[in-house]
Description:
The structure is a single chain. 42% of the residues lie in helices and 14% in strands. By secondary structure, the protein is an alpha/beta fold. The chain folds into two domains: 188 residues, NAD(P)-binding Rossmann-like Domain (Rossmann fold), CATH 3.40.50.720; 183 residues, NAD(P)-binding Rossmann-like Domain (Rossmann fold). Strand 9, helix 8 and strand 10 form a beta-alpha-beta unit. The longest helix is centred in the middle third of the chain and has 32 residues.
Amino acid sequence: MKITVVGIGxxxxxxxxLLSQKNEVIALDIDLDKVDKINRRVCPxxxxxxxxxxxxxxxxxxxxxxxxxxxxxxxxxIICTPTNYDEDTNCFDTSSVEDVIKKVLSxxxxxxxxxxxxxxxxxxxxxxxxKYNIDNIFFSPExxxxxxxxxxxxxxxxxxxxxxxxxxxIFANLLKEAALKVDxxxxxxxxKEAEAVKLFSNTYLALRxxxxxxxxxxxxxxxxxxxxxxxxxxxxxxxxxxxNNPSFGYGGxxxxxxxxxxxxxxxxxxxxIVEAIVKSNSTRKQHIAQMIINKKPKxxxxxxxxxxxxxxxxxxxxxxxxxxxxRDNNIKVIIFEPIxxxxxxxxxxxxxxxxxxxxxxDIIVANIVDEKLKNIDKTIYTRxxxxxx
Length: 389
């Protein structure tokens, strides 16, 4: 198969790498630096499996920024462009996805099949089919973790296809054949149901994060041992020991926007839980900031903006909102973040020397406690109970 992947973020790059093991793949992106790195087999994101595949595997993978070159003779076009949540419209901004669809329709014939992997509102695909009078497009949600995107494609929990056609079956098999896991559940359904699966899955994960964060808030204010309570709760096999480590709030690219989009999709539909999940995250960040403010520090040192271990991304990190609250309360903030090479971030001083950072800060605030923070004689404020994501 000749496959074009549009958008080389976590989703697009992991799919390009996965499918180029057995297919001809062209990765298309407007970012020339990413294009150049991929063609030189330098991974532009932090993902151990992609890095290893680039070094060790023979991949039929080429990157370009030219639409005509990428789309010519493609059998499948996989759309992985970003869909950020627009607070003004209460909806995903799907303009980048629609721009790609229009380019495909202008360049390719009707034999090409478009597969949307970008997260979209429920009903998007049906609306596109009606708007452009087409049927050669469907949605297939992805369920990837940041930093482990290729791993999660090699060992997927499930493959979900929002279509029941022969082309849909072929695409599902492309994903299955490229994976290493055996006996992967594959579900075929209509587009709206597939779109809903994505939003409800991520909202449930956000619910788990929020639940254990609120458990931790209760324990912290009541002077109880959070770990003992979490251990006791999670030994119930119906609850389980996952997504149970308290944090400063859920962040990253997916959970904040997907929960808000699902809430928007609930317009005129009775609900309480979905709205509570969205509000709970804001409440948690307010609580964390207040606990820091209560310690009356003159200088707060923020240890890492990234929210996950081995991550190079801090987009929508909960700590960013906490920093804003601290600054609004006239508390000086400094940041230690090795992936930022500049001397400031959003007007905040970046301290590159950890020893200097440690000396200047009255208190160090860390969402995750790693080896660098162990055995230092400094006040550390964290809610990282299990020393992991």
